[in-house]
């Protein structure tokens, strides 16, 4: 069963790569065959097997021999891995609406993370469908009020930073992402998610400073850390929250 979930994740990851590419090039997501980004040669099914094709072709296009971005196999592998971890954390109850809800939200977050990393941008066409999905799910589970409170506090927190810094600390995309993540987690889990994101951001930021790759003033796309933190909270949120609130003695 684990293998089936993993392979399913690889295939979905390959689809997410196509979505990320087409969102940027404003091609239709549904129509049109996949093609090489360099030579535009149409790709055969043999070139589209997740991870395997990349390895067989040793990371180069079969037709023009230019390099294929490591993003493609990486996103596929990460999606496969996260799907497996989600299946494990839900004890393989794979037919529940909760499982498929979390799976779908994770796909949205992977798109947001990769797109923000590459282009420093969080797109409305990704945020709004996810926000609608979360709202409908919250209505069906009675989490609606918690979701609204979480959304208002977390996006309000980002909005304050956005206006105080005039957009230097944080982008307006993060304010919208705060709406989505607050809706998904509510306030209690949302704050743990936020802390984890800042913690990861600080570690990576200090790491980049020490190795001299970034200057203090250069910004890191915070949406990446928020998305990764959110996925971790979906997988291990209750454990992390219990541990953290125990620590605080709450
Ligand atoms: Zn090519």
From TrEMBL:
Q: Which residues form the Prepilin peptidase A24 N-terminal domain?
A: 7-88
Prepilin type IV endopeptidase peptidase domain boundaries:
104-206
Per the record, the GO terms for biological process are: signal peptide processing
Give the InterPro entries listed for this entry.
Answer: Prepilin_IV_endopep_pep (IPR000045), Prepilin_pept_A24_N (IPR010627), Prepilin_peptidase/N-MTase (IPR050882)
Q: How does it sit in the membrane?
A: Multi-pass membrane protein
Q: Name one Pfam family in it.
A: Peptidase_A24
Designated name of the protein: Prepilin peptidase
Q: Which organism is it from?
A: Candidatus Doudnabacteria bacterium RIFCSPHIGHO2_01_FULL_41_86
- From which lineage does this chain's organism come? Bacteria, Candidatus Doudnaibacteriota
């Amino acid at each position: 069963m684990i293998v089936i979930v993993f392979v399913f994740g690889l295939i979905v990851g390959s689809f997410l790569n196509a979505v990320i590419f087409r969102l940027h090039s404003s091609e239709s997501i549904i129509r049109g065959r996949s093609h090489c980004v360099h030579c535009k040669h149409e790709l055969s099914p043999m070139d589209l097997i997740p991870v395997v094709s990349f390895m067989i072709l040793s990371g180069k296009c079969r037709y023009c021999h230019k390099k294929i971005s490591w993003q493609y196999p990486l996103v596929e592998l990460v999606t496969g891995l996260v799907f497996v971890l989600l299946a494990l954390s839900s004890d393989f109850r794979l037919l529940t609406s909760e499982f498929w809800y979390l799976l779908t939200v994770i796909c949205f977050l992977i798109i947001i993370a990769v797109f923000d990393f590459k282009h420093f941008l969080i797109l409305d066409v990704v945020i709004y469908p996810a926000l609608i999905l979360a709202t409908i799910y919250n209505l069906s589970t009675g989490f609606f009020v918690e979701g609204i409170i979480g959304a208002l506090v977390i996006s309000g927190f980002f909005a304050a930073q956005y206006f105080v810094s005039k957009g230097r600390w944080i982008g307006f995309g993060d304010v919208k992402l705060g709406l989505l993540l607050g809706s998904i987690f509510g306030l209690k889990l949302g704050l743990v998610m936020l802390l984890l994101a800042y913690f990861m951001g600080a570690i990576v930021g200090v790491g980049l400073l020490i190795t001299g790759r970034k200057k203090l003033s250069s910004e890191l796309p915070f949406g990446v850390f928020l998305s990764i933190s959110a996925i971790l909270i979906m997988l291990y949120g209750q454990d992390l929250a219990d541990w953290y609130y125990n620590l605080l003695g709450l």
